[in-house]
Write a structure and sequence with these properties.
Blueprint: E1 9-13, E2 18-23, H1 34-48, E3 55-60, H2 76-79, H3 84-106, E4 112-116, E5 119-121, H4 123-129, E6 133-137, E7 141-143, H5 157-165, H6 168-177, E8 181-182, H7 183-188, E9 194-196, H8 199-214, H9 218-232, H10 236-250, H11 255-265
Parallel strand pairs: 2-3, 3-4, 4-6, 5-7, 6-9
Antiparallel strand pairs: 1-2, 7-8
Helix pairs in contact: 1-3, 4-5, 5-6, 9-10
């Protein structure tokens, strides 16, 4: 039995070291209740610490990627009962826990590829903006839905979406109107970088890319993701200075001569686990 056992998330790990993480509440359209939030957070903590895993593909089971927040099962109403100060304190913890689920994806030591099909509402946008690579099927659409349920998005979209798209006007339009952004527009604005025919095809594309990444040096892949994340949040000068500190010891890796040998001999390198 796989050690990755969760109530609302399914994880399969291939022999190549690719983990397939599926949001697995298909009867509820993979809507985020407290259990799904907890399972996503725990799954990515576990995956990040597993040296047998090299890359992650995340998708949704059933009809759609996710319907967003499960309004029928949310604990927000109970958190607002009683003394306002105590309720606010509980709300903080609730929001922080939700944020941590998607930050766990961003900070995962393995690259994460989102493979989206059909609807990706609210919390789904929060999730995929935390991923490293985003692909979608032709029937996909994305919606920052929180404005339509009376709140500002609070678990990542408002912070990550401007950095993903780079078009502040479009980001504000999407977040303030709650309109749908369909696959073609998502491709044109750079939110996704590949559109496939259907769910099966987008998964195939995601796994194709995952296999390429899994064949690379784990030291190089880890460092590349880490330095890209750091540089995104700092100036160019700060990013360069930090890269010196990171790469100075990392250049001593055995993976560099192994990679050079593989290039010269035209044969795949066999790298050690991290």
């Amino acid at each position: 039995m796989s050690k990755y056992q969760y109530e609302t998330v399914k994880v399969d790990v291939s022999l190549e070291g690719i983990a397939h993480v599926q949001l697995n509440r298909p009867k509820k359209l993979n809507a985020f209740n407290d259990q799904l939030v907890s399972d996503v957070r725990t799954a990515f903590y576990d995956i990040s610490a597993d040296d047998n895993i090299l890359v992650v593909v995340v998708s949704g089971s059933g009809r759609m990627f996710t319907a967003g927040l499960d309004l029928a099962e949310t604990s927000l109403k109970s958190l607002n009962a009683g003394d306002p100060a105590r309720a606010a304190y509980k709300n903080r913890a609730h929001i922080q826990g939700f944020q941590a689920a998607f930050t766990a994806i961003e900070e995962c030591t393995k690259p994460v590829i989102a493979a989206v099909h059909n609807a990706c509402f609210g919390a789904g946008v929060d999730l995929v903006t935390a991923c490293d690579i985003r692909y979608c099927a032709k029937d996909s659409f994305f919606c920052v839905k929180e404005v339509d349920v009376g709140l500002a998005a609070d678990v990542g979209s408002l912070q990550r979406l401007p950095k993903v798209i780079g078009n502040n006007s479009l980001v504000r339009e999407l977040c303030l109107t709650g309109r749908n952004m369909y696959a073609q527009e998502a491709l044109e604005c750079g939110f996704v970088n590949k559109v496939a025919e259907n769910q099966e095809a987008v998964l195939a594309e995601a796994f194709k890319t995952a296999k390429i990444i899994a064949s690379k040096s784990p030291v190089a892949v880890l460092g590349t993701k880490h330095l890209l994340n750091y540089s995104r949040d700092h100036s160019v000068a700060e990013g360069l200075a930090y890269t010196v500190t990171w790469n100075a010891p990392m250049l001593n890796t055995e993976d560099i001569p192994l990679s050079i040998e593989a290039f010269v001999t035209k044969s795949p390198a066999k790298y050690s686990k991290l």
